[in-house]
Design a protein that fits this description.
The protein is of the alpha/beta class. The protein contains 6 helices and 10 strands, in the order E-E-E-H-E-H-E-H-E-E-E-H-H-E-E-H.
C-alpha cells in the first residue's frame, strides 16, 4: 500500500474498547506521528465534546488536541457557522453544548435543529418538542409510523398532529410519490 499523507483513526473499537486501550494502539499512533504522518481521530459519538475525548485519549497514553478529533457535533457546529446559522435548537448531551459556542439556543423559532444522543433524556415529551415544535417551524413534515413502540391511539396524543400516518416505513416511497 502506498504511504498516505495522514491517517484517520476511529476511536471506539479501534483505539479503545469500553474503558481499555487496544493493546499496541499508543505505540502505533506514536510511530505514525514520528514518521511524519498527520494523525486524526473520528467518532460518531455525540455525547462527549472533543475536549473530553482528548482527555480520555491522554489518559490512555495517546495525546490528542481537539483539532485532531472529528465528531458529528463539531462537524454540525462548523456547518452552522459556515452557513451563518446562529439560532439553533440543540438536542445533544449537556457536555456537548460546548461544541456550539457561536449558537444561540432557540427552541421556539430556530433556523436549524441538531439532534444527538440524549440517552435516557429522550422522553416522548422531548421527542415531541424536538420534532413538533422547531422540527415543523423549519418546514419539516412529520410522518408517524405504526411500528416499533407504537400503541393504538398514539397519533391522537401528538400536538401538532402528524402530517401523515403509515403502517410501515415501506409505505414512505409511495407517500412521497417515489416509485
Amino acid at each position: 500500500m502506498d504511504r498516505p499523507g495522514g491517517v484517520l483513526l476511529d476511536l471506539d473499537g479501534t483505539i479503545y474498547e469500553a474503558d481499555r486501550v487496544v493493546p499496541g494502539a499508543p505505540e502505533a499512533v506514536a510511530r505514525l506521528r514520528r514518521a511524519g504522518l498527520a494523525v486524526a481521530f473520528c467518532t460518531n459519538t455525540t455525547r462527549m465534546p472533543r475536549r473530553a475525548l482528548g482527555e480520555r485519549l491522554a489518559a490512555l497514553r495517546i495525546p490528542a488536541v481537539p483539532g485532531e478529533i472529528v465528531t458529528a457535533p463539531a462537524a454540525a457546529a462548523a456547518w452552522l457557522r459556515a452557513e451563518g446559522i446562529r439560532r439553533v435548537a440543540l438536542y445533544v448531551a449537556e457536555a456537548t453544548l460546548e461544541e456550539f459556542p457561536d449558537c444561540t439556543l432557540d427552541d421556539a423559532a430556530p433556523e436549524a435543529v441538531v439532534l444527538g444522543d440524549l440517552a435516557a433524556g429522550w422522553t416522548f415529551a422531548v421527542l415531541n418538542r424536538a420534532f413538533a415544535g422547531p422540527g415543523r417551524a423549519t418546514g419539516l413534515r412529520a410522518v408517524l409510523v405504526r411500528s416499533g413502540r407504537y400503541r393504538v391511539g398514539d397519533e391522537a396524543t401528538v400536538t401538532p398532529a402528524p402530517d401523515a400516518v403509515v403502517d410501515s416505513v415501506a409505505r414512505l416511497p409511495a407517500l412521497f410519490g417515489v416509485e
